[in-house]
Protein 1
Amino acid sequence: MAGRESAAYLFLSLLQAKTGGSLSNRLAGRDVRAVLERPADEFAREMNLTERAARALAELREGFDACALVERLALKGVRVLTRADEGYPARLDAAPDPPPALFVDGRLPEGGFVALVGSRKATRAGVETACGLGRELAARGVCVVSGLALGVDAAAHEGALAAGGATVGVLGCGIDVVYPRSNRELFRRVEAQGALVSEYSPGEPPLAWRFPARNRIIAGLSDAVVVVEAPEKSGALITARHALDAGRDVWAVPGPPGSPECRGSNRLLADGAGVLWDVPEFLEAVTDHRGEEGGGLSPTGLPTGPPTGPVVNQHEIPETPVGLPEGEAEVLRGVDFRAVGADVVAGRTGVEMRAVLSSLAMLELKGYVARDAAGNFSRRSAP
Amino acid sequence: MMSVCRVRSLSLFGIDALPVEVEVDVSAGLPGFSIVGLPDAAVQEARERVRVAISNSGYKFPTKKVIVNLAPANLRKEGAAFDLPMALGILAASGGVPLSRLEDVGVVGELSLDGGLRGVRGALSMAEAARLGGLRRLILPKKNAREAAASGGIEVYGVGGLREAVEFLASGNGVEPAGPWSEDGEEPAAVEDFADVTGQGYAKRALEVAAAGGHNVVMSGPPGSGKTMLARRMPGILPPLGLGERIEVTKVHSAGGETNGSLVRSRPFRAPHHTISTAGLAGGGSNPRPGEVSLAHHGVLFLDEFPEFGRRTLEVLRQPLEDGYVTISRVAATLSYPARVTLLCSMNPCPCGYAGDSRRACRCTPGQIERYQGRISGPLIDRMDLFVDVPRLSRDELRDGTPAEPSRLVRERVTLARRAQVGRQSSPNCALSGRLLRAACGLKGDAEALFARAIDRMGLSGRGHDRVLRVARTVADLSGEEDIAVEHLAEALNYRRSYGFGR
């Protein structure tokens, strides 16, 4: 990094992390170098800063040395990309309110980016869908962007990693802070195979307001955003709104009507989001998009050919799978994609509870149904 | 005139009784009454009770120096059961009343001020200890006579008061020995019936399996799903107690002062509140008494809102679940109470209670859910055999008119299954492990292949593996089958722990 402009952006980034609000917008048109070069009090007055922000500005100014900071971070393997730098993602720069600087651990791949986001408390079906989409996208050389949270986020990253593709995790804290802790292993693998990205400098804690803010980066980095499963008031919906503001495509995976886990994503569909009803169609649409921007081989060297893994598609199930004993087939007809308890299955099919239970376990072993953490059963997309 | 008189008595120690000799010396000197031989406060207070009871019964308390020694002197004596032997000893030693027949008689009983007798704890254990100690007759309060007579092999005389006891000992008649123990009518049916619960076939089936094999169960579900209602109906489907079991259970209940003067009839069902102390659950106190886990011996211990129990409190359950008894160590002594229980627990899946519910969104963060489920320690979760999810039913499902099976029919199946287990390995299936487990739960052909696949695909651990086999054995017993077939194994697989639970 060189240049006074880069230093100014880096400084602005540190300041934003302290104040919480976005100063980039207020700068509107002004030269960013002013944050470092104008006298602090004068700048604060011009920018109409709050007293707290002004104080933070003065404190940060003291002893600020961009070059030393960058060198220190480089020792830790952290790269700083400011808006003045070459490597700063062009798509993100074009989005509203781009972060002044990004801290990156790993390698930001070239080519298409698609974000997969959704509920942290996704259903089994949601997790499987996210994982399958991640795998398909990565196999086609598309980089999967997500937030490294639990549920859909983790599944999306897992899917991409399983296909050997690249994936980028955008964090709401410093990139050396593992949050949630249970994702520790996933963090390590994402870093090795893609990149961890954050607008907060290393060591910054995961404060609640930082997560909605990082969602604009997820949206900004991506060509398209897919909401896999989101209840009302989900962070994934914030990502979708940012994507719309940035002029990116928003897709949503349809869920069963009325189910609270999918109300948010279904609402997006009602509002006109792309309906992700057929995986090949979706893949074609998003990879075409990528082609316009000059794709080719994926960064991992995988050809962008047909998918290697099974296609996740909820609508291509054989009506009654052949080769199942009559009793199990009968019970299977009582299970659909919405997870239900054994009692509901027994009620739908009229089969005795004992037989329902043994059939469900057989179907689970054969891969036709899945049991979630709450002990409910749902159909699996592909046995 | 005889100045030292010995009366044989008994003292409760844990659930067993030990012989205690009450020696009374009445001699010249300054009138007084003292008790030696490690008595506790209640025994010390016997001085006043005995003095008043003797005069109110129409006898004269000697105006001499009275010393009572309770032997052996190193054993701590507690309670008021020595009142009657002391009173008889004093009357005999002072020569006021001729008592000729004290040699082979055991005496226990608490006196009231008017000379009447109150019941004692542990009558059955005392009768047993008296018989083993070579005594031929036992005199105790009327209230305890039936219970004590159940031990057999000893003549049990229930007396109403001090006067009656004295007259009986002087003349040898006036009191009939309590008859040999006999069944008192039909076992009363449980009040709450499974037929009252609509739906919840899955949970009912799981409870049936648990009752048949004595397996420990965790029910997880949102508030209002009926976990407690189901649990309260568990007593109605438990298999009847055998006579040996009834005697054991009665001894524990009697030691806890909880009998109605007869043998305990049906399997205990104890439901302590989650604020219970460690001593309340495991037993203890300065005068040790059995805790809830022992009072549930051979029955069910129901822990509602499982994660709300103190972690330390729950940890004391580890020994009983492993060994079938609790050991309580005091400075003076170490005693153990039997505690072979079926643990029935209910819990919400998360702090707000609605995780996994179909109609109400859960407000908890994944971290909160993890912490909540993590409150139960792994070793304890490892002892649970069946994990059942109890969903909340919609109004339509509740209105469903199909009548549910009454508890009576379920109980018949359970009783037959339990009989088969006892016939095969002389213990319920929950106690199977190691060599016995492999002998009783051999898998053949298809079932073996299925199990191998299940181990792979469902990631069963070594413990989980044994657990599934035990439960499958019970499912097969409920169907009356010799061998574990594919469908039994498959059903048992459903009761395994959901992934991510309780870690």
Note: Chain B has two domains: 4-171, 194-430.
Protein 2
Amino acid sequence: MKRSSWQLLLIPGAALVGALLVVPLVMLADMSLHRYVPFAPSIVVGGYTLDSYLIFFNPVEAYLRVLYDTLAISLYSVVLTILLGFSIAHFLARTKHVRMRKLVMSITIASFFTGTLVRVYSWVIMLGQGGVVNTVLYALGFERLRLIGTDTAIILGLIHSSLSLAILVLVGSIRNVDPSVEQAAWTLGADPITTFIRITLPLSMPGILAAFVILYAWDATAFLVPMILGAGTHLFIANLIYDKFMSTTNFPMGSAISVVFILISLLFFSLSSALAKKLGRTTHD
Amino acid sequence: MAATTLVFLILPILVVVILSFDPRRYLAYFPPAGFTFKWYQFLITSPTMMGGLVLSVIIATITVVNCLVVGLPCAYCIARRQFRGKELLLNFLSLPMLIPEVVIGISLLMFFTRALLYDSLTKILLAHFLFTFPYMLRALTATLVGYDKSAEEAALVLGANQIQAFASVVFPLIRAGVIGGSIFAFFISFDNTAVTLFLADPFTRTLPVALFVRLKSYSDPVIAAASTLLIALSYLIIILLEKTVGLDKFTGIAPLPGR
């Protein structure tokens, strides 16, 4: 049996991803270094320039604000999602009621599979002027609130769309925490809260970290949620890029923003990889 | 707290289902004013919607097959062999997960135009493969790392060659993971709106794109009806999953970075 032939198996995957991903991204980077000329007969005009990047990082312009909005709002969402998700994940990992567990699991997975569009739409119905929340408020005698177009709406939408993913990721890692360690803590006199803080939580940290990274990537690249629930007040990076390409046809600027964001994501990803390695344990092997 | 969270999870979806029966043309007023099936009737008879549904299913199926064919060998190498740059390769192949769909859509559009590829369906299939592949790869890698290798070793010791061992021992063990990963990948492809939006043309509309276009023009309960049908479909698949593979196996299959 040939010893090195198995490496050939990797080639189709790497080649396809390489062609479909790297080449377009290189084109994108190339585009970002050109000058933006409105109404020019061809998109690429003139020589190379760092104009777009200079404009992006200029504090006077609004681009950094959008970046901040994206990263900050996503951060709030992820933290809340992990908190909420952990409660259900812990239940799923530890409960003895088989039927309850299967029921909650099906709800979680079904929620995962409902599409983004449906979800965003349902929140429009929940938070709109004539929606559920406002109808209840009005019936109770309060004023209707303008909820669509606030960052709260976006956060709710983001939490709702990533909650199932969070639960699925967290359950695996909570399961890996050996229950006998928890039981040992109980026999030694710890109450449930202490056990949780000093035993369960630290041991499920790799999973929580993994969930944090993937949820943050998921939320920060969101497009539909900030677009529809934010109604233009809090643009996310994805919306900004879309706008640059589609509305103002400022391809260099759109490309520049994309490049900056991808670099930030890569940085974030590698930092968390390093952190995960440092924590020592993996959750699968 | 878990209970409240569950309610939070279910409530908006429930509202959509309830409102899909609302006879009024404008949506988003909560207490529904009546009960009707007419939006469902419209859906079933609408060529855009039904065509979109069929197209989405076809694209998703082909994408899953593509990902499996390319991904299984890759996952096998990554899970079972040591080589330099393995970590790097896995991260490279997962890159599409990190890039906003908008960016993928636009850059692919630029690329395909310059490559003189104009056929919408091909473009969509290539794009769907690209962003579904990382999820499939990670799910498969997780499965291939996690199964009990001693059974496979036993088979090899008893005289089976690599292929026989794979077919009769390894494959049944990883079947659950493969199915789970496939279903996951199917929905990633099926649900995709942003990337497909850039690459579709008026003759090649997937269901999410058709719904999105409709959402922009009207705000009527047709979308609620479509959503309800999709939700029902996903519950059906859940039940199917439970009967064949068992839902518990689904956890731990979700992709994890930083490995």
Note: The two ends of chain B are 31 Å apart (CA to CA).
Protein 3
Amino acid sequence: MKKLFKKLFRDIKKSLGQFIAITIVSAMGIMLLTGMAVIHSSLLTMTNAYYNQSNLANLSVYYQGINNLGINKIKQINGVEDAYGRLSLKADSINNKSSFIVHTVSSDEKINIPLLKTGRLPGNNTECIIDSAYATSNNLTVGRKVTAIINKRTYNLTISGIFNSAEYVYLIEDPTKSAMPNHKTFGLLYVNKSLGENLIGNNYCNEVLVTTNNKANISSIRKKIENATNKYGFGSVILQGDQLSYSQLQSDIDTSASMSTVFPYIFFLVAAVIIFLSMSRTVQSERSQIGIMKALGISKWSITVHYLSYSVLCGLVGSVIGNILGITVIPKALFYSYNMLYTFPKIKYSGYGSYIAASTVLVVSFGIIASLLSVTKALKEVPAQCMRPMPPKKVHKIWLEKRKKLWSKISYKNKLIIRNIMLNKHRAILSSIGVIGCVGILMCAFGLKYSVNNLFDMQFNKIQKFDDTVMVSNPRPYNSPVPVNNNIASLDKLSTIPAIIALNKDVNSMLYVLPKDNKSIQLYDINNKEINLPDNGIVMPYKLAQEYNIKVGDTVLVRLQSAVYNNKAIHVKVSAIDVQYLSQDLYVSYNYLQKLGTNPNVNGYYVIVKNKGLLPSTNKYLTGLANVESVVKKSSLEADMTSSMGTMNTMVFIMIFMSAAMALAVIFNISSINIFERRRDIATLKVLGCHKKEINSLVNVENLIITAFGSVFGIIFGAVIYKVILNTIVSESMFFPYSISLSMVVLSVLLAFVFTMLANFMLKGKTRKIDMVESLKSVE
Amino acid sequence: MKTIIEFKDVCKQYVMGEVKIDAIRDVNFTINQGELVIILGASGAGKTTVLNMLGGMDTVSSGEILVEKADITKYNDTKLTNYRREKIGFVFQFYNLITNLNAIENVEFAAEVCKNHLEPKEILDKVGLSERLYNFPSQLSGGEQQRVAIARAVAKNPLLLLCDEPTGALDYQTGKQVIKVLCDINQKYKKTVVIITHNAALAEIGDKIIHMKSGKIQSVELNQHKKPIEEVEW
């Protein structure tokens, strides 16, 4: 037995390239599987623990003002576990430098519990607690003071504690403006109940957090709550899954899951294919040796184990490399991006063991099956049969030959190539699996990249024509004067009103009110045709229209979520459907809202400067104006968005790298087998005076044909996985256009050809090494 | 008669680790146009090395090989390839037909690359295979395959036919037939033929017999009493 192991290692040494190729492909699959699975499970475990620790609300209900009586009514509803009310407001710091989400908090209320890192909950209405990210970014510690303007009153609050919030893992001021959290300017500020009463009075609660039993039917509970508490100015219900922070994180968790389910198996399959082909070849070329081993009395079982151990070894080595990369490189790359987006506890990677074991078992069993398939046939033969040379392969006419005219026009070199492919169809098909996988993954990678680029171009160049968004602190009537400056080419009034669209479920949105003939926003429909802001209806985002089956001409109910408009509900007509990428908002003209009896106050302007060089001075002028709250450059929004897409870029690079490795490994490997099997023919061709170039082109052209063939199916395969991946990674508020562009197909196929050419280049040595004397030897 | 090949003090050394092995030493002989030359020797005598040198498949350690006055030992890789392509027609012991091409294609394939090649069909007819033109090597017997191989070599219309143990893999009768084909070609087309063999009986059919032993030429003998192959027995 020991001698057989010696033989095994010598076999590996003899065809090291092949061993490396199989190992690399296996390692890639394992790296993805373990890496993404560990990320997925760690994220999931961490968030679940975090959510449990904080007892995250299953739903939040918004009111104009509700008291304990009303809250008790909710508690009594069947299926409701617990409920408690809190104040929910937005506030600014005294110098306008930052703003806060303000909530009331108390120790006996056990939903969305702030998790204190240091200090204690606010004991009275001169104290507050702030979130740790804001504290760190602004160098605040317990005992320091924060001055905030809450509901137009100024409070000088002492920080009594610093906390983390599971509710606001993803904390962002306005998702329509920036997807990147800025903890320096936006934070959480929780105050004592007494401050709430001090501010508003007994009915200070405008939000009720509710937890439900596991099995409870959320939609029926929602109805019951609405019925029981209608008189408190019932506003809207936001389910856990629709909450921004929750859904954003969830979509990243889902992405990691989908990455660990689709791609690794492509690699395992490809690895299995190479193993199968390599083993078939090894077994075939060692037929006589198998015969000898059998004749020497070595059991079938030992011989099988001998050949199996080759693939097992490939799998194990691949598994070690893949797992090491999988648990170091991948989490590091992705958590870097995650940490920019989310504030959550340090992740402990968990469940290594099981994934390492599972992926190893998986890749090894793929290998074992593949080699079993190839070995058993040779083992069935009796020793004497094994030791005789293989009967020559039956060569037959291929269909092309029946077309005599066409066939006679083909050169002998090409006839040779075509016959070789047709006579080894299974190998050609298996090689093209590598190409299919490669092109598929590339298409998916470029598709995602293209989607993002396209989206950025649409959003920041075509839709948003303005240069600056100016927000004013005191909303003013429509006819109030606007800033005037020589640098400004155009200025459009803007009103943003938080709104809920009452569809099958309540959808949080924002109403963007603009002049009908504004120059700042150009909407487009799904066919990329321009839409003018109508004065007889609203423009509905395509994603919502699709999801809720809304057509032009339908009427929908929109509840304005602002005390200024008395939480008015209006019925609006859908006049057009536009495509929005980063958020799903309603666009409407001042004319139309005025027709419906609502006169929105202007709370901002979109500004276009005469030329980009004037931006700094214009911004200086605008920032200096009284009542101007903020001036945001479009370019900084774009920069923010770009960095929030970091995860995507990381993924795309990983995917391109891996598809290259796969294509190279497969083509190199299968061609080596091909060359090995034809070494006698090649040696003869050399003796007959064929030049190196001509001999290389025999192999190269064959590979190029296989690549062309594989590309066709690869494109189809790529289109499918691109769609699957796109669907799983897009968060609720975003819309990624699915479109397959010619350039992306061309680029993928081109790259596949480049990889093939690279493999061809690597194969040059193999044909060069074949000795002409080989042609003088007898057939084995 | 014109001398077309001249071996001048050709030596070939193989270095295996620290041991140097002389495969052939100080080999001198000439081949004239139209001659049928038999190179005889036991295995290990250096026949194959001479074949490799003559066929432009290997380089010499020292000495000169003049082919039509040009020294091929000075040739680079490309020139050597062209030399094999234009000047030499190989006949192998194990036929070495291209498995994925049929008989006529195998011949045409080789002829195609030479300038003044002969008509493939005609040659296949001459070797008695006009009925088997479209058969693949796997569908032909050993003798038939070897005849295709000879046709392939002849169709190139080379300077000389270089045959390495052409009967080695064939039975007695078939072997004789193949030698007959080679003799015919030598006579009808006035082609120079070099047969490398360990079969001493074949000496009787050659114009010139080169005996080799232990890497050296033992004797070069001109045969005045050539016998037709039919009269040779072994």
Note: The longest helix of chain B spans residues 172-188.
